Amino acid sequence: MGVHPKESTAQNIENIKRQIGEIAAIYDWDMEVNTTDPEFYKWTQWIFVQMFKKGLAYEKQMPINWCPSCKTGLANEEVVNGKCERCGADVTKKNLRQWMLKITENTDRLLGDLDKLDWPEKFKKMQAEWIGKNHGAEVDFKLEDRDEAITVYTTRPDTLHAATFMVLAPQHKLAAELATDETYHCPKKTMVYTPSLIWKFI
C-alpha cells in the first residue's frame, strides 16, 4: 500500500470504530485494548522474556505455509484449496527458524487451573482440547542397514503388532535423505517437494 504499517493500522482502527458507531453498537470504549500500542505489547514482550529465562521459549526450524508470489507466510485459514487466498498462487511449505513455546511443560497446571475459571463449560472443553493432553508411548522402529531409528508416538501401543507400514511426513528430517528416484518428485511451481515416504514392514 506504500504506507507505514503504524499509520495504516491507526487508520483502520479509526475506520472500524467509525463503522461501529454508525450502526449504534454499544461498547465500553474504556475497556478497549489496542495490541499495537507500545503500552500493551511491552507486557507481551516482558512475558516472553520471562519464559525465555525459564527455558520455556526456544528456536526451532518448523515448516510454514509459504506464498512464493506474496513472499510471505500464511496461516492455515489463508490457504484455500492449496492456494493463497490473496493472489491465488500455489502455496508451498518452507522451513523457517521461529520461536516456539514449551506449553507442554505446564500441561497439567493448565488443565487443572481451568476449573478456577468462571467460564462456560463449552469454552473450558474447547480449551482443554486445544491443550490436548493424551497418554501414549514412543516406539523406535529400526531402519534396515542403518544405525538410526524412526520414533513414532502412539496412544495405542497395543495395536502395533498389526502394523504393516508407516508414513514419513514430507517435512521429516529423513524424508529427503531416504527418498529414491521413484519416490521423489518435483512438480511445477514447487521449488522442493518430497512426498510422504511409506515404509512397509516385512
UniProtKB/TrEMBL annotation:
<dbReference type="GO" id="GO:0005829">
    <property type="term" value="C:cytosol"/>
</dbReference>
<protein>
    <recommendedName>
        <fullName>leucine--tRNA ligase</fullName>
        <ecNumber>6.1.1.4</ecNumber>
    </recommendedName>
</protein>
<dbReference type="GO" id="GO:0005524">
    <property type="term" value="F:ATP binding"/>
</dbReference>
<dbReference type="InterPro" id="IPR014729">
    <property type="entry name" value="Rossmann-like_a/b/a_fold"/>
</dbReference>
<dbReference type="InterPro" id="IPR009008">
    <property type="entry name" value="Val/Leu/Ile-tRNA-synth_edit"/>
</dbReference>
<dbReference type="GO" id="GO:0004823">
    <property type="term" value="F:leucine-tRNA ligase activity"/>
</dbReference>
<feature type="domain" description="Leucyl-tRNA synthetase editing">
    <location>
        <begin position="129"/>
        <end position="182"/>
    </location>
</feature>
<dbReference type="GO" id="GO:0002161">
    <property type="term" value="F:aminoacyl-tRNA deacylase activity"/>
</dbReference>
<feature type="domain" description="Methionyl/Leucyl tRNA synthetase">
    <location>
        <begin position="2"/>
        <end position="91"/>
    </location>
</feature>
<comment type="similarity">
    <text>Belongs to the class-I aminoacyl-tRNA synthetase family.</text>
</comment>
<keyword id="KW-0436">Ligase</keyword>
<dbReference type="InterPro" id="IPR002302">
    <property type="entry name" value="Leu-tRNA-ligase"/>
</dbReference>
<dbReference type="GO" id="GO:0006429">
    <property type="term" value="P:leucyl-tRNA aminoacylation"/>
</dbReference>
<dbReference type="Pfam" id="PF09334">
    <property type="entry name" value="tRNA-synt_1g"/>
</dbReference>
<keyword id="KW-0547">Nucleotide-binding</keyword>
<dbReference type="InterPro" id="IPR015413">
    <property type="entry name" value="Methionyl/Leucyl_tRNA_Synth"/>
</dbReference>
<keyword id="KW-0067">ATP-binding</keyword>
<keyword id="KW-0030">Aminoacyl-tRNA synthetase</keyword>
<keyword id="KW-0648">Protein biosynthesis</keyword>
<dbReference type="Pfam" id="PF13603">
    <property type="entry name" value="tRNA-synt_1_2"/>
</dbReference>
<dbReference type="InterPro" id="IPR025709">
    <property type="entry name" value="Leu_tRNA-synth_edit"/>
</dbReference>
